[in-house]
Model the fold of this input.
Amino acid sequence: MPTYTAPTKDMQFVLHDMLNVSSADIPGYDELDNDFTAAVLDEAGKITAEVLAPLNVVGDTEGCRLENGVVYTPTGFKEAFRQVCDAGWPGLACDPEYGGQGMPGVIGSAVGEMLNASNQAFAMYQGLTNGAYASIHAHGTAAQKATYLPKMTNCEWTGTMNLTEPHCGTDLGMMRTRAEPQGDGTYRISGQKIFISAGEHDMSDNIIHLVLAKIAGGPKGIKGVSLFIVPKILVNEDGSLGARNGVSVGSIEEKMGIHGNSTCVMNYDGATGYLLGDEHKGMRAMFTMMNHARLGVGLQGLAQAEVAYQNAVIYANERLQGRDVTGAKNPDGPADPLIVHPDIRRSLMDQKSFIEGGRAFALWSAMLLDTASRKGDDDALGLISLLTPVIKGFLTDQGYDMTVKAQQIYGGHGYIEEQGMSQFTRDARIAMIYEGANGVQALDLVGRKLAADGGKHVMAFFDLVKTFIKENEGDAALKADFLDPLKAASKDLQAASMYFMSEGMKNPNAALAGSNDFMHLFGHVCLGLMWAHMARSANAALAAGTSDPEFYETKRTTGRYYMSRQLCATALHLARIKSGADPVMALAAEAF
Ligand SMILES: Cc1cc2nc3c(=O)[nH]c(=O)nc-3n(C[C@H](O)[C@H](O)[C@H](O)COP(=O)(O)OP(=O)(O)OC[C@H]3O[C@@H](n4cnc5c(N)ncnc54)[C@H](O)[C@@H]3O)c2cc1C
Done:
């Protein structure tokens, strides 16, 4: 069975050596000293490794079961859920006014990685609740907040997000779910939603569904969509639970992965709903939490890569096959361990350098989000909005690829369920699809985010890279290995942006044909920037005579690998982008 150990040491490195969180000028960050974050991460590491990770395979093999309208979660989920909630983990970054601990999102993200790595299907029950909580927190009335948030903070009540319908997923303007005003401030919600994560289950007393629907007579298309709170069980004025609402589960989906999470068809048959935010502004209410939610899904890609990698390393050290071409390393045994082979090393280095770079990127992004939300910093908000599709699309595409690489290290044993490696690839796959499929993330990046506010935010990103290079140019330990490759990659990104600005206006297909490449090019530059930062921090620790030189040397060496073998992908992406629309669009649709 696979194992999981929380990478707390690496998280501490990112938080303190690289991001210097405790001295950052962000409200709430002064509490994040080394001992404090170590204590939080160690506790989270314990519960995820000891309680959630052993249930991961159970969730995969048992799945959820629907009986007489009730969904039963896999053996052990219910008890573990209570344990996690009683320990306060779901409310870690929630508002203290509603019972949360009010910790910065940067800590919530580090813990989020652990939850998802140990058991993604399980973590989603809480993740969806946090998403619904964020929408009510941002758009709810005082009464709605008082009614729902305290119980959602500790997951006594869980939450869901209901967007998708059978005929519309990406194009939500075609939505058919209706909301009829009842004249008393409530609405009757009727329609069917599909693929609703955690739509029904046996782990909480109530489920608070957030449902997108169209109010009759409203504007056509996406502009006519409103958001509603639809509790599974209606809540009385005194906060106690009342009658069952007109919402039921139609079926649960059979799917490729995350079997422990119930993915439901939800039927709304004249259910009572309460408007959340303004009429016809439902998408705006949903989008408020998009940056958070998409960072959360990006973390899932990273998390699956991490747990798969951990197991691949163990296997590569234990499995004996072939001999080291430079001479036997295990001369008394029948063969050497897999880890001696350069091709196995390449794969492990691809994984390790992506994971550590991705972790830095995710936590740096969470810090940007904190800067935006806790300081009201519009520049940080603009930058994180630009980077959100990159975080989601790049980390999940690459994260999935890394789980495949980890599985490959097991050879045929990776394909056989007994080893548990296929679960990581199957679970990682969904993160590329939900919360806006990755093709649509690329579209959002190129079609909207790049030119937003006159291109101000992408220029701010280029400035960030340029400033870092300039400030460190005199550092010989960084120059050739880190700064020069970063400069070259950043030039590729600028050239691609310029290409879109000039060609995209004339021929939108030219921009969209290159959008996926652009998202990946951007992701590589972000990780290149992270590695340059981490290398600088590692150099500083070594120069200061750290007591753990091995850790910092390993960090530098891993960074050099990324800069020399991964970052050069930017040139390939740029060449593809510059080939324009023709190679992609030349065939008529009938020719396929
Ligand atoms: C396990 C699981 C859990 C889910 N959980 C939830 C949930 O909790 N709540 C919820 O509301 N939904 C949920 N979903 C739905 C998910 O968000 C949608 O599947 C997703 O948004 C894509 O919609 P679709 O499947 O209808 O695909 P479509 O919209 O039909 O898209 C199909 C493909 O075409 C691409 N595409 C679409 N439009 C364009 C375009 N203009 N340009 C380029 N490419 C395009 C997409 O990228 C995609 O690859 C879940 C889905 C699954 C499988």
User: Anything to note?
Assistant: The chain has a mean pLDDT of 96.
